[in-house]
Amino acid sequence: MKLGVIGCGKMGSALVEGAIRSGAVPAAKVSGCDAYPEAAKTFATTTGATFAESISALNADTYLLCTKPNQAEAALGAIPAGEALVISVAAGLSTAWLEARVPAGVRVIRCMPNTPALVGKGAAAYCRGKAATAADAETAKLLLGSVGLAVELPESLMDAVTGLSGSGPAFVYVMIEAMADGGVRAGLPRAEAIKLAAQTVLGAAAMVLETGIHPGALKDQVTSPGGTTIAGIAELEKHGMRSAFIEAVTTAARRSAELGGS
Ligand SMILES: NC(=O)c1ccc[n+]([C@@H]2O[C@H](COP(=O)([O-])OP(=O)(O)OC[C@H]3O[C@@H](n4cnc5c(N)ncnc54)[C@H](OP(=O)(O)O)[C@@H]3O)[C@@H](O)[C@H]2O)c1
User: Fold this and answer.
1) What is the number of the ligand 1 atom nearest to the C-alpha of 65?
2) Where are the domains of the chain?
3) Which top EC class is named for this enzyme in its record (predicted)?
4) Are 117 and 124 a contacting pair, CB within 8 Å?
5) Hey, whose CA ends up nearest to atom 17 of ligand 1?
6) Of 25, 236, 252, 261, which sits 20 to 30 A from 60 (CA to CA)?
7) What pLDDT digit, counting tens, does each position of 155-200 carry?
8) Which residues, other chains included, contact 101 with Cβ-Cβ below 8 Å and sequence gap of 6+?
9) Domain 3-153 of CATH type 3.40.50.720
10) Segment 65-78, tens digit of pLDDT
11) Nearest CA to ligand 1 atom 33
C-alpha cells in the first residue's frame, strides 16, 4: 500500500502515527498534503512520511481523506483518475455522496472514528462503497485498527454508530466529571477525584473487553448483599441513569440522521 494523506490535521496525523507505529504501513510509503503546507511539513517531520505540495503530488494508491466534511468536495475533485481507494473519515458523508465526487475508477470506504483515536484508544466503524472490495475493507481495518477497535457494519447503521461511539466520549466525560463531583462532595481533593474517576472508567471498560464477561454479570460480582455498591446502584436506578444513557445514544443517532448522515 502507498498511502496518501489528504489533510494532516488531528485525525490524519493520529491515524498515520498509529499505522506507522503498529507496522501497518512503513513511513517510507506514506505521503501527506494539507491546504496549509506547514501542517503537512510538520506531519512529515513527526511521522517520517514524505511531504507533498498538493493532492496530485501524493504518491498513493490509497488515499486517507481527513479534511473537514465541508472541505471534502474540493479535495476529492483533485484526486487523479485511475484505480485507487479513498478511505474517508469525514463525519456524515455517505458512500453515495463520496462516489458521486471521486474520479472514475476510484473506490470508496466511509469510516466513523471517534476522538480517543487521538490517543490510540478509538472505537470506529466503517462501511464499503459499491465498488470497494474485501481487500479494501481489510485495508480500512488495518489503518483504523492501528488506533483502536474497528468494526465493519452496514452503512444504514452509521447514524447509530455516531450516536454511540461518536458522541459517546462526551457522555462519558460528563459521567467522569459527575463521579469526581461525588468524590469531592465525599471529601476528596478535585485532582485526585478526577484521576480516580477516569481510571475507574478505564479499568471497568478493560474488564468488559478483556474478560468478555457481560457487564451485568460484572456488576453482580461487585454488589455484595447490603453493601455500599448496591446502595449506590439503587440510587442510580432511582434517577433513571439507564434510561438517560439509552435516550442519549438514540437521540444523538436521530440527530445524526437529521443532519444528513446515512
Ligand atoms: N477529530 C476527531 O476526533 C474526529 C472524530 C470523528 C470524525 N472526524 C472527522 O475527521 C475529519 C478531520 O477532522 P480533524 O479533527 O482531523 O480536523 P482538522 O484537524 O481540522 O484537520 C483537517 C485538515 O485538512 C486540511 N485540508 C482541508 N482541505 C484540504 C485539501 N483540499 N487538501 C489538503 N488538505 C486539506 C485542513 O487544512 P486547513 O487547516 O488549512 O483548513 C486541516 O489541516 C473531519 O471530517 C471529522 O468529521 C474527526
Assistant:
1) 11
2) 3-153, 166-258
3) oxidoreductase
4) yes
5) 9
6) 261
7) 999 999 999 999 999 999 999 999 999 999 999 999 999 999 999 9
8) 72, 73, 76, 77
9) yes
10) 999 999 999 999 99
11) 34
